[in-house]
Amino acid sequence: MDPEHTAGRPPEEITRAALAGGATIIQLRDKVSDKGPMLETVIKVSELCKEAGALFFMNDHADIAVLSAADGLHVGQTDLPVDAARKVLVPGQMIGTSNHAMQEALVSISEQVDYVAVGAIYGTATKEVTVSAGLETLVMIRGEIGSPIAAIGGINASNIGPVMAAGAEMACVISAVGMAADPEAATRELVALVNG
After folding, report:
1. Is-catalytic flag, 127?
2. Phi and psi dihedrals of 41, rounded to 5?
């Protein structure tokens, strides 16, 4: 969930639709809002996830993850380091990392993260600067680690099959749901393809 990629609709609306469509994890990624308004939105999204029995992860902001009672935090390679983030998080909150290459994934595993995100798998419009990992890197990382893998970057209904076949347990999407005319139907289609 990214407020910049909702076709002008409130993040809560897209969250409700995605959860109704079968999403089991929601991550909120907000690169533009001030923390006060961000916290209000995040708390609403976190509560929607709890009501639906889904996990909620906050992107980047460990303090907001704690204040919103998120299930976990997701950090990139240039965000708060994992060990520093753990000092902010409360016991029981999970942490995952973005990884573009094998070495980054191995470092993440050594830091005992709960999952590893690999990407960008395909080109994406949601990030100005993306390092391409591709399916080949996903396959290599899957061969080396046993932790859950989330694939990210340009994933949609037309290309999710090869992503799951390459060994990902999870697929992260933003535009494929947030920009869809019917986010619930778009989520339902993706979930069916993942579970296929």
Report:
1. yes
2. -65, -45
**How many CB atoms neighbour CB 27 within 10 A?**
24
Active-site annotation holder among 46, 86, 108, 127? 127
132-143 pLDDT, tens digit each: 899 999 999 999
d(CA 37, CA 45) in angstroms, rounded, equals 13
Q: Which three-class secondary structure string do you get for 94-150?
A: EEEEEECCHHHHHHHHHCCCCEEEEECCCCCCCCCCCCCCHHHHHHHHHHHCCCCEE
Backbone angles phi, psi at 187, to 5 degrees: -65, -45
Treating both helix axes as pointing N-terminal to C-terminal, what angle do 35-52 and 11-20 enclose, rounded to 10 degrees?
A: 20
pTM as predicted: 0.95
Task: Specify the residue for token string 């704690």.
Answer: 66
Q: Which of 16, 29, 86, 142 is catalytic?
A: 29
Structure token digits, residue 175: 């535009």
Is residue 110 annotated as a catalytic residue, yes or no? no
